Amino acid sequence: xxxxxxxxxxxxxxxxxxxxxxxxxxxxxxxxxxxxxxxxxxxxxxxxxxxxxxxxxxxxxxxxxxxxxxxxxxxxxxxxxxxxxxxxxxxxxxxxxxxxxxx
Amino acid sequence: xxxxxxxxxxxxxxxxxxxxxxxxxxxxxxxxxxxxxxxxxxxxxxxxxxxxxxxxxxxxxxxxxxxxxxxxxxxxxxxxxxxxxxxxxxxxxxxxxxxxxxxxxxxxxxxxxxxxxxxxxxxxxxxxxxxxxxxxxxxxxxxxxxxxxxxxxxxxxxxxxxxxxx
Lengths: 103, 166
What we know:
A: Helix Hairpins, elongated, B: mainly alpha, globular
């Protein structure tokens, strides 16, 4: 197994774990954490392809990963703000109990 | 494949698994911090020092703290009565397993076509700064705008509404 294939397999595994967490957990915060894991797995793919690709001096893969980290930080802030707002309103973070769109 | 890679892979994957499986939400936050640390060390192992330290600062420094704050503000560490998994957990698990099977099959069956450059790239922070200020200046400004908007939006969304103080 080449090093790149190893990193890609680890990224695929972390992505699947994050997807499983986002799809199966009931706590909204844990769902957000699962999404963060999926974003991180994508970043690992970008960095691995940048490292083993033909033109690492062009910095494309690394820049993509750095911008992706920034966007993920913004997403986490807004997502957790929404969770806190919903908790204040509905007094729960259980996604199975959030089954109505009316306020 | 070096021994370091296997240690980091084990750290990352076990952190992710613990995040999904643990009952107490605070323990989950700790486990996901471990997974983020493993990924940051993998970035360092891949000669991407800047991205690795950015990962440590942003994820371990900021996102993990935000998650802990959100857990404590919502009393999310209490285990719900109906268990920690939703009632459609089997479908979610099957979907995740199917996604992993497809991704793993794609990686393993295209191994000979993957690029493999032997030399490690030498990239200084100065090169990254020059690239950010020349070729990537428009994405940088857009990210700055996005972060400002996200920060204001998060504060407004999470702020107490008038008459809602209990």
